Fold each of these.
Amino acid sequence: SAAAMLRLPRRWLASFSGPRQRSIEERLTEVFAPVHLEVLNESHGRKQDESHFKVVIVSDSFAGIRLIARHRAVNQSLLDGDGALPFHSLSIAAAKTPEEWSQNQDVPASPKCAGGDGRGMLR
């Protein structure tokens, strides 16, 4: 099952998980059938704002695809009907094949957001 494929770090399980985060997890699972998926709500202030997310995704779907194309595919899979992300910020910390992930599980820290905190978004 899709739920069985998601292995979230214990430190993330206790954090807030809202409807937007669950939607991201479901969509990425549907599109990429990942063997490992982490979606972290990095929203500033209230986590309930659900404006900033960090993704680590490991999937056989990325085999033979360059890194930039992987990132574009992840972004594309999350766009709304208007062709925009339905939240302020998406950091794709890792988009790897299972073989790449088994060799290197390093995940860089997210960059500081310079475009505001996403407050006041209507979506």
Note: Residues 34 and 59 are 4 Å apart (CA to CA).
Amino acid sequence: MADGRWRAVHPGAWWLWALGLATAVTMTTNPLLLLVALAVLVLVVVSRRGDTPWARAFRLYLWLGLFIIAVRVGLYVLVGYKTGPTVLLRLPQVDLPSWAAGITLLGDLRLESLLATVVDALRLAVMVAAVGAANALANPKRLLRLLPGALHDLGTAVVVSVTVAPQLADSVRRVSRARALRGESGRGVRALPRVALPVLEETLERSLLLASAMDGRGYGRRNAVTSGIRRATQWSLATALLSLGLGIYGLLDGTAPAWLGAPLVAVGGVLAVVGLRLGGRTVVRSAYRPDPWLGPEWLTAGSGLVAATAMVLTSHSAPDALVLPLDPLAVPALPLLPLAGLLVAAAPAFLTPEPPRSRRSA
């Protein structure tokens, strides 16, 4: 049922929730708040992800976050700018030649700059985890329905590309389990040919089934439109891109004239909407079992907005509470307002319906 206990939350609500948490994370370098945000992401994903292939890909984003932290720390040790009074480890310093002036390899590792590097990398890792949480919780195929008609083909390509890696991982897991049940041994490089061939065969079979399903549903049909509408769509989209580019440049450049900023952004936004509406006339789509937007969706999207709003308010009232004190080095504070906002963002783990399970997993 649409409002029963078992139903999938609207994919747009999950993306709004994840974007709210990502926005909140970008405004702080407080490691305590970053760890709380990461814990909220893990809690919600573990509680509300389904049994689809993309739902099991969240751990890959966590490993990617660890890789980002390791790379940032490695670059700091190699070519980082070492500052701070506390020396952790003394390493030899290598000054590069004149053509690479200003770059010094290695050098003394200092606690303050090392902590700053780790915290910045942790912030980026939590942002990556937020995107991974949205991908794990939101069905990308259902998210395709939300795109404008003019972007339907592009959205289809994106959905196919996003689901390729999880489906390949799921195929490898099934083939490996089948080999284990048959008593076949061998791992690593030796087992690669015996695993790759069944995976390739299953991938081709899945591609043929997808093509048949798309053909049976009439994918690729186009409405007949006049050449005038087609030209108007092209010109409006091209002018919108140009206006948005110049407007963003005007907003970022403080010396640019006033008309080059917000007015051009507004004009570009209007032209983009007009172009997308005109381009959507050529696409024929039907809505089968549309996703409802009810109380759980408002709760999910609103909880992410609460987290971002709490962080914005704290950045204006107490900005020092959102940063790691390095001069002098001290234990970071735990401000109550951002903490409460992040805890509110964990509400979807308890107050949203559980996702439906397939018969096999049930």
Note: Residues 4 and 89 are 59 Å apart (CA to CA).
